[in-house]
């Protein structure tokens, strides 16, 4: 919510004039790094790995293309407006998306402007060098800005008006995140909350005098319930002034974030809409398909061994299909290696597996403990029912019992179900707290990025397969 509030106008940066100048230098240096990356990649390809000065000069002429593309996307997607509020994995994910866009547009433009085919090795080198350079520059810039904000050298003064749970949450976020650079100059009409938190306070009737005296860089106003009329009255009398006004909307049950869109001049506020874009989702799907194919091919000998052992150790089929729910509430058949007696569900009904479950076979106990029984779900990933990473799918019969008891339970179906997930690598799997699992699923959906997916996959490889709660 905090990042959404600060991102209302392109021109209203939370940084002061000194830092805006620094941002300009940072932008220029980003473009220099993009140019440098192409020059270095071309030099390595044609001068170090070969001795082709002619091609080196020929492809060197293409340098302005990635620079122009980078400049367009850096400003269009506002890579400098709120960096310090992003988590590291989201920041790196945004840089990865930027780099991919540069590569795609560069390839399209290069093939149209250059008669010779662009060396694929040069493109790979360019991608790697560019990604490393941009990340290093971002780390240096981010640390510089954050240190100045923490020291109070780049403050953004806020004049806060109103009270209610949404305002309390905003104040808490501001106070607990000094790296944002925001400080509260005064809090009007706080109903005593300002005094309790030892913040400067003023009466509602004295707002204009304090604004004139303190000259804040933004005015933040938010009321709840019947007091909303005060907010409307203030905006009506102050909308025509130069100081930006930020409204904190009263949005209940927005558990996985909000998105503001413009519909023909009419602002629309979406609640519980994941912050994702089509290109990111396309890349996630490409990674899913590539990872599933790779896993099915590489693990095929292991699949054969497990299949034989399942068949030898208990009568019945090798695989077991169970209905589960994925994105948008769609029901699909999820595949597993069978780890229980045949028709165990029909005998016991739909229940979770518990420790020392008598329905398990001897070999089934082993493959459940080591998560080998989950590997056939790579087929579900390949055909689009699941993703490599996402909230773990549950059975429709159990969902009916949970959806009205646990707040936000159905929101986990805003994204495609996964073989592994943020809750699972943090130990919340099997017969553990369902509330905690939902909490971690909500965190994953709110903060989703390709980098977070990669982090979860790596953690799954190193410590996510064997778990004490996998019965």
From TrEMBL:
Q: Where in the cell is it found?
A: Membrane
Q: Which GO terms describe its molecular function?
A: phosphotransferase activity, for other substituted phosphate groups
Gene Ontology cellular component?
membrane
Cite a single Pfam family from the UniProt record: CoA_binding_3
Q: Which UniProt keywords apply?
A: Membrane, Transferase, Transmembrane, Transmembrane helix
Q: How does it sit in the membrane?
A: Multi-pass membrane protein
Give the stretches traversing the membrane.
21-44, 56-75, 95-114, 120-141, 289-310
Top-level taxon in the UniProt lineage: Bacteria
Coarse class of the primary localization is: membrane
Q: Where is the Bacterial sugar transferase domain?
A: 284-463
Can you tell me which family this protein belongs to? Belongs to the bacterial sugar transferase family.
Name assigned to this protein: Sugar transferase
